[in-house]
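In the previous chapter we treated chains in isolation. Here, by contrast, the input contains two separate entities that must be folded as one system, with a combined length of 343 residues.
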Amino acid sequence: MSQARLIQLEADILGKNNGYAAANRARFAEAGILALNLVSSPGSGKTALLCRTLDMLAGEFPCAVVEGDQQTSADADRIRATGAPAIQINTGKGCHLDGHMVGHAVDHLHPADGSVLFIENVGNLVCPAAFDLGEAHKVAILSVTEGEDKPLKYPDMFAAADLVLINKTDLLPHLDFDVELAMANARRVNHRVRLLKVSARTGEGMQAWLDWVRGARLMALSGRPSQAAE
Amino acid sequence: MHEMAICENIRVLIEEQARTQHFSRVERVCLEIGALSGVEVEALRFGFDVVMRGSVAADARLDIVETAGTAWCLPCAVTVTIGRRYDPCPRCGSHQIQVTGGEEMKIRELEVT
């Protein structure tokens, strides 16, 4: 009978994922790739917004997409129809993408240097908040058909996001959704968050979102470690 | 479901330790979970028993040390304790607060044989 002993571990439970995410981040930094992690509830219009974004950015700089869903490759098919390369990750029973899956997807996708990599996470406002993928920014999408209190109900996600897109604004005349209240709630959990109102359907507000992407891409390009060394 | 994924990460970490530290059974697992980590402790306890089945930590006792959420209030310029992420500063009511602690999710120690 062996003696019981104590092992002091102090190990971060998500340390392994964080290691994969750090490797992805270093790789994106070196290639001047802007990686954006798009998170939302199911049905917020993420894929439609992404298709419209890719259409509007076509020819300006290369874009690539990693699509996360539990099942089907329907979303990647929709993205490929825009001409952008896309890879589908089916998480099966998993409720979020993780750093390891994204690293593998990027191996297959080979996004060009200086491109924008959109990572469409599994529609879920809970789990993806905890799993770093190596992205530069999390972008949360909140549609006006949801409640204004979503940022308070799912504070971790809205606290982790640098930008919140309030989508489907074309539907506002038909709804009681209070945009100002939704924005105030997002600021309650994250006082530094940026908020933009968009409609992927009518294109309203899309230019401001594209300008944000362009600005973030320039930051990714100018932040390349090899440039700093020159 | 997020707690299940966290339990799977815990299992992988424990099994790695079992190989490197040469133990075959875990009697007790002590975790540190921050109040703002987004982890539901009850769901974690449930997931833990299910996920550890068949591993070196099957039947291990689970101790969870819950640490308080702390934040730096910009207007007050002091550290305050908060229970939830969207709580205002308990002193001045401002939401201009920066979370400084309580997001931890760690395995503190393992008691093994």
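Strands of chain A lie at 5-12, 34-40, 63-69, 86-90, 116-120, 137-143, 163-167, 194-197. The first helix of chain A runs from residue 15 to 31. Compare these points with the single-chain example from earlier in the chapter.
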